[in-house]
């Protein structure tokens, strides 16, 4: 019998390339990953890894097993969902991952609704960058999460996950005056931490109009970003949900750039009663444009959103 936890490790190794990368992503030690993969080899009865010094490569048998892993794991998750559907009351845990502005504006009302309607459900929230959310879902560290993509930074296909549209926002240029994006070719810029989607969006959006931004400050909190803009420290991109308590000095100019957020969960779990309840609560939280505008009075334009019906 193949251990599903070890199958997840093999799948991650195929995706990440090294045992060290798998260990770092899933909070294991490299030796623990090696031991679990060796145990999987014994369960499979055939070699799965070819070791050359400190590096490993997957054998043809391992690659075939990886091809089946997503289907195997999704079927098991679907079976668990069907069993859970037979219960009369939602119990257990729900682990949600979301980016900071969504936690404040959208996740809070969803949590209130879930707590009211399902008092025996234990809720856990993790604030994280959307770039890390898919890995956390595949590692079974989260049950549902918010993934993002921007114009100029399209999302990569996420093996093993199901996604659905959730929210679409306009991205604004925050500056001390109303200018076009090319007018800030020589300006100082404020961008997210390198490696985050916000940073990649800033670099790619400026590159699309012919220049590389001179990033002077890195900040991931949009309140901090707006304060730096107000202090004359540079210009920045700010999406609708980040436009909270905008300083009087700052002008937000809508750009032809969109930020799209998707709900994501492991394939096969969408029908699980707990996941379905989370999907309904989250879509309800984003379903009213007035509610979002009231929570974000500084936004220059209303948030636009698209909701998908959930079972």
UniProtKB/TrEMBL annotation:
Pfam families: HTH_1, LysR_substrate. Keywords: Activator, DNA-binding, Transcription, Transcription regulation. PROSITE patterns: HTH_LYSR. GO terms for cellular component: protein-DNA complex. Residues 288-311 are annotated as: Disordered. The keyword Transcription regulation applies. GO terms for molecular function: DNA binding; DNA-binding transcription factor activity. InterPro entries: LysR_HTH_N, LysR_subst-bd, WH-like_DNA-bd_sf, WH_DNA-bd_sf. Residues 2-59 form the HTH lysR-type domain. Belongs to the LysR transcriptional regulatory family. This is LysR family transcriptional regulator. It comes from Nocardia pulmonis.
């Amino acid at each position: 019998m193949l251990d599903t936890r070890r199958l997840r490790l093999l799948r991650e190794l195929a995706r990440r390339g090294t045992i060290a990368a798998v260990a770092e992503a899933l909070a294991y030690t490299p030796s623990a990953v090696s031991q679990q993969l060796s145990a999987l080899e014994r369960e499979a009865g055939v070699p799965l890894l070819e070791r050359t010094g400190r590096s490993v490569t997957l054998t043809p048998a391992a690659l075939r097993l990886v091809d089946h892993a997503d289907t195997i794991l999704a079927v098991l998750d679907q079976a668990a969902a069907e069993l859970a559907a037979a219960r009369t009351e939602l119990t257990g845990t729900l682990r949600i991952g979301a980016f900071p502005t969504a936690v404040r504006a959208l996740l809070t009302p969803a949590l209130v609704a879930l707590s009211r309607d399902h008092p025996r459900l234990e809720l856990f929230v993790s604030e994280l960058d959307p770039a890390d959310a898919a890995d956390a879902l595949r590692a079974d560290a989260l049950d549902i999460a918010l993934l993002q993509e921007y114009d100029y930074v399209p999302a990569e296909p996420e093996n093993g996950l199901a996604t659905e549209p959730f929210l679409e926002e306009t991205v604004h240029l925050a500056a001390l005056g109303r200018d076009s994006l090319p007018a800030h070719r020589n300006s100082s810029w404020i961008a997210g931490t390198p490696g985050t989607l916000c940073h990649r969006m800033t670099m790619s959006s400026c590159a699309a109009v012919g220049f590389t931004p001179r990033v002077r400050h890195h900040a991931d909190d949009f309140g901090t970003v707006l304060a730096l803009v107000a202090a004359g420290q540079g210009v920045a991109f700010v999406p609708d949900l980040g436009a909270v308590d905008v300083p009087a000095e700052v002008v937000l100019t809508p750009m032809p750039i969109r930020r799209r957020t998707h709900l994501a969960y492991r394939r096969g779990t969408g029908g699980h009663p707990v996941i379905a309840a989370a999907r309904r609560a989250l879509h309800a939280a984003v379903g009213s444009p007035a509610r979002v505008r009231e929570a974000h009075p500084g936004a220059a334009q209303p948030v636009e959103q698209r909701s998908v019906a959930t079972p």
